[in-house]
Amino acid sequence: MTALDGFFRLKENGTSVRTEVVAGLTTFVTMAYIVIVNPLTLAGPNSGTGMDFGAVMMATCLASALATLVMGLFANYPFALAPGMGLNAFFTYGLCKGMGLPWQVAMGAVFLSGCFALLVTLTRIRETIIEAIPSYLKAAVGAGIGLFIAFIGLKNAGIIVDHPATFVGLGRMGAPGVLLSLFGLLLTCILLIRKVTGAILIGILVAAAVGLFVPAGGGKMVTQFTPGKLFLADLPPSLAPGLFKLDILAALTPTLFVPIFSLFFVDLFDTIGTFVGVARRTGMIDEQGRLKRGSRALVADSLGTVIGSLLGTSNTTTYVESAAGVNAGGRTGLTAVVVAACFLLSTFLSPVVTAVPAQATAPALILVGVLMCGVLGEIDWGELPVAIPAFLTILLMPLTFSIATGLAFGFIAHVLLALLTGKASEVHWFLYVLTALFVVYFAVQ
């Protein structure tokens, strides 16, 4: 205990081993849904990426464990990391499906975005970027990603379907799979409203269990266990199909600049928002309003993406669910170490993960989207120079199925409106550089 106290400074932070363990378990339960949702997003039957499901599940668990371990041991913070929601959807639907990239090239783009994040964290560039981006655009990006994720959830549930005349239409609401998703959505809503710990994970597991009795046609049920895999635990699947398979050289092309920057941008501000939001109530913020040991925490976050891409998963980011553990008393990196241990144990649950259908995870995507749209109130909709770029950013992300496109249009609109209304001097020079690069990106497409 003395060694743990000395390393993590437990007494100094007003905590104990028991409190940290409970906090770590609390954080893990609230974010464990990613062990199921991430493989389904990157390698599920609707993804079309060609990635191996078991390998992605292993990469998800190992990347989360290693990145969270670095956060705990190097930065001594109670923050947990895992592949980010929204970023994984952008990988599948934006890079692989939208741009037609092989998943190996898309993974190379993820690696480069992580390296860029690491570079700017170790230099003053990070501060320049943070200062350059207007706060309303940061909020708009978060809301746009929320709508993007929710749209994918509605599609996976079968609530929204393709329509030859109107592009999208309402699905067959009486279909068994749709009814299962609606049941899961209602259940998860109730659990979230009642502030039940692990609400999203509970909703997924209950819906998947009910799916064992819901017919999917052809004599099958919506939830299907792999033949011969009827036990809840098994040896971990092989990591080999995705390990070190990224193609970095093929990702070093001008057409991938905006997608790489978009991955970096979303990850950076998602992480900073989580750091500040969670740490504000815990004494982790100094007198200047900055996060103590913030550089170390950002290095850990950037390394998480680099590690994850090498293992075979999309951008790893700090999870806002870390707040659950902080609220339970977690104050040091020991909380993160406990979360990392839980992710390692999760590698033995592949039979459960592979059995969960998309209809059971769809409610999680929809409700995560709802939670991400909470930042809409931070945008001053009464000011057109603010409202127009924000609206374009939010609207174009789901409609073009691309975070990068929404981001680019928002930045371009912000700069153009400033130039045309005599407010050019109010725009940071870095935004002019970014806007020029965005224009070049659209020109070469």
Observed structural traits:
mainly alpha; two-stranded antiparallel sheet; globular; single chain; 445 residues
Query: Taking strands numbered 1, 2, ... along the chain, how are they ordered across the largest sheet?
Result: 1-6
Distance between the termini: 59 Å
The radius of gyration is 21 Å
The main sheet comes to: 2 strands, antiparallel
Instruction: Classify the oligomer.
Output: single chain
- What is the 3D shape? globular
How many β strands by DSSP? 6
Percentage of residues in strands:
under 5%
Written description of the protein model:
The chain has 445 residues and is mainly alpha-helical. It has one domain. Helix content is 64%, strand content 4%. The protein contains 20 helices and 6 strands. The chain has helices spanning 2-8, 17-31, 34-43, 53-75, 87-98, 103-121, 125-132, 135-157, 176-193, 199-210, 248-251, 257-279, 294-311, 322-327, 333-345, 350-355, 358-372, 384-400, 403-420, 429-444; strands at residues 81-83, 160-163, 167-170, 215-217, 220-221, 316-318. A two-stranded antiparallel sheet has the order 1-6. A hairpin with a 3-residue loop joins β2 and β3 (167-170). α6 runs antiparallel to α13 (294-311). It is globular and about 65 Å long. It starts with a helix and ends with a helix. The mean pLDDT is 86.
